[in-house]
Amino acid sequence: MLDLYRRVVARFPLGNVSYMFAYGSGVKQQIGYEKVDEKPNSKSVIDLVFCVRDTQGFHAENIHRHSSHYSALRHLGANLVAQYQELLGARVYFNTLVPLHDLGVTIKYGVVHEDHLIDDLINWRHLYLAGRLQKPVTDLIKLDDDSRLKTALEKNLRSACQTALLLLPEKFTAYDLFYAIAGLSYKGDFRMIFGENKRKVHNIVQPQVREFFTLYQPIMKQLSQYMAVDLHGQEPGSRRPAIVFEQDKSGEATRYHLRHLPKELCHRLKRNAACRGDYTDVVDYLAVAPLLPKIVQVSVNDIVWRSSIKQSLKNIATAGIIKSLVYSFRKAQKTFAV
Prior knowledge:
Helix content is about 50%, strand content about 15%. It contains 14 helices and eight strands. A hairpin with a 6-residue loop joins strand 7 (about 225-235) and strand 8. The radius of gyration is 20 Å and the shape is globular. The two termini are about 25 Å apart. It is found in: Mitochondrion inner membrane. Pathway: Phospholipid metabolism; CDP-diacylglycerol biosynthesis; CDP-diacylglycerol from sn-glycerol 3-phosphate: step 3/3; Lipid metabolism. Its EC number is 2.7.7.41.
């Protein structure tokens, strides 16, 4: 499939693209979807994201090459398209349900400026693309070890893992950990009420536990002082073999995780905690609060709820009315899927 993805992206202006990745059910195996293999499935959609250094330049060239990918917004010019991308919602511009007949696939692709992606990865400003990148994806550009993006991507994974630890008990399985991580960007998404399969998180995690483990293994090593893994353990409450974790739930460990959370999440925690003072005071209060997991979850949900609504409304204009209705209908069908 990697060859197919490269053939897809080769038709786009890549001169100022600093990072690309493919994600979603058409790329990574999920329960309820046909098996992802070397042959493209005409029913699935390949989701792509282009991270660019020059938003207006990318859209100018892309509109010239592929004007049919865009809604009527293209008539306003690349400058207005770029402003619409960068000033509204989660700062991503999506072209939806784009058929590539010669390759036998349909794609949806987003465009984001590198600075805005880094901001989301580090600070969880919107927890939008940051949420997608907390799950296994297929990278289409290899990043340099010293790049800002690579550092931000690693910070995002570490933040996701530390947030999940605050939600989990002392002992838990690998599935529990990755379910908590994958759920961060879904539980607050208003589309989970109407527009997504209610078992979406399970359907993502269950067939990809190994990929999640590979993705988060470097982070587990970094946090080895606070979490230990038994690769030959048993599920708590049963004798079934499982990868089992045990974490340090002391006040000191909890304070450490709380102090290293993304900026936007810290802001939400400060607002949702029944505690006055600066964030240092909030950390001391939350470290011993019985309702800490609930407060953390509500604070994450606050970020996701806001950004998911704004971005979904924004996508109506970028997709156009017809495509929006078709896409929404397909999503709505998933609500009732098993």
